[in-house]
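As a warm-up, study this chain.
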Amino acid sequence: MWRNAIYPMTSISSTLSWPLLIGGLFFGISPLLHIGIALFSVAVLFTVITLPVEFDASKRAIRALAHGGYLTDDEIVGARRVLNAAAWTYVAAAAMAVLQLLRLILIARGRD
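Now compare it with the structure written out below.
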């Protein structure tokens, strides 16, 4: 529900954040940099909110594959591993986004 509510805002903020961040850094305009960081924060929030959705999707896919008779029991084990690995890529992306946000905040603080 939260994810769907902030998606439109996230779409706009993702598009605008990097040009504002780069412009703020390149031209030394702090307000531009701070606006870029705020917009990037919305994108980071969206990434973090998406994590439970992705893990739930993997669980639902395994259930559908198992109950639908699409895979054997041995294949279900492998499919579960692959889908869990895919869900964990979202965790890695969220961690990188959070670290990038912290990096940008530290850069901005160093310029103020």
